[in-house]
Amino acid sequence: MAEINEVRRRMDTVVLSHALYKDGMDVLEGKVDMVITNNGKSDEILEELKKADGFILRIGKIDRKAIEACPGLRVITRTGVGCDNVDLKAATENGIPVVFCPTQHARAVAEHTLAMIFALSKNLIESHNETLKGNFNIRNKYQAVDVKAKTVSIVGFGNIGKELASLCKGIGMDVLICDSLKKKEMVEKQGYRFTDKLSEAIAAADYLSLNIPYRPETKDIISKPQLDLMKKSAFLLNCARGELVNEKDLHDALFEKKIAGAAIDVMQVEPIQKEHPLLSLDNIIVTPHMAPLTKETTAEIVKIAAEGTLAVLSGQKWPYVANPEVYDHPRWNS
């Protein structure tokens, strides 16, 4: 039986939206036929998906139309924790587990957010660019500020929020947690302040960090009314999901200097186009959705993603799936 399963795995076809970091490709090599499309938009690669047993999605989306058009598809894999670009309901209805990597990236994203806090606070980007131009006197702008004793409001106390809170506390920041699903006593026991009211967290923040998933109810959770509550000296950080922030309202707030600055790693449409209005501003830092992509974290994530893909293709009930109820589907009980 093991030999039969091994032959079956070697014959399976896995479509990859983009090549994985080497460690993941090494796991898949020789076990499946790989098709790399360099395109994750399911409507544009539908013909390839119709021939696939598995789909590994890095950047892009797969919707109900594509899922229902691909009866041979047995697994969809996300190389990360976010699955908002996969129609989970359609996947579950069709008996397709959606493999994801729920905790491995938390430290890397928290570190990236902390790096952004320092970059904003110390005005590193402008200072670097001006120094390259020979403008040594940029130092006399006195734009840099200290972070010690400043309040960082962390919206969302999941794995990433907890890591970020620990890092910020370690450098002497005042940490305020905002999470309506957590208990005040639990948060305060860890040495942080707590509120379950977003408006309070926003108004108190010198740094406002978004660390919640995207859901329909969290779309544009930061828009003009919330930005108007922020201190003029405050900074916004978003390393979670682009859909959380209304980009036009953020642009207006930054352009009009209603807030001091922002740093974002995620956009509503990715990859971001160089013509995007936010990129014309001098008080924003933008990185290309790279917060979890450290060498160490990426190696771990892609190996888990690849191993999960192979496990599901071989008929195993892999534990790390975003839709565990899928295992009640007749496809898994025949």
How does the SSE layout of this entry go?
Layout: H1 2-11, E1 13-16, H2 22-28, E2 33-36, H3 46-50, E3 54-57, H4 64-68, E4 75-78, H5 88-93, E5 98-99, H6 106-121, H7 124-132, E6 151-155, H8 159-170, E7 174-178, H9 184-189, E8 193-195, H10 198-204, E9 207-210, H11 224-229, E10 235-238, H12 247-255, E11 261-264, E12 284-286, H13 295-313
Parallel strand pairs: 1-2, 1-3, 3-4, 4-5, 6-7, 6-9, 7-8, 9-10, 10-11, 11-12
Helix pairs in contact: 2-13, 6-8
GO molecular function: phosphoglycerate dehydrogenase activity
EC number: 1.1.1.95
Keywords: NAD, Oxidoreductase
Give an overview in words.
It is a single chain. By secondary structure, the chain is α/β, with parallel strands linked by helices. The chain has helices spanning 2-11, 22-28, 46-50, 64-68, 88-93, 106-121, 124-132, 159-170, 184-189, 198-204, 224-229, 247-255, 295-313, and strands spanning 13-16, 33-36, 54-57, 75-78, 98-99, 151-155, 174-178, 193-195, 207-210, 235-238, 261-264, 284-286. The chain has a seven-stranded parallel sheet, sandwiched between helices. Strand 1 (13-16), helix 2 (22-28) and strand 2 form a beta-alpha-beta unit. Helix 6 crosses helix 8. It is globular. The mean pLDDT is 94.
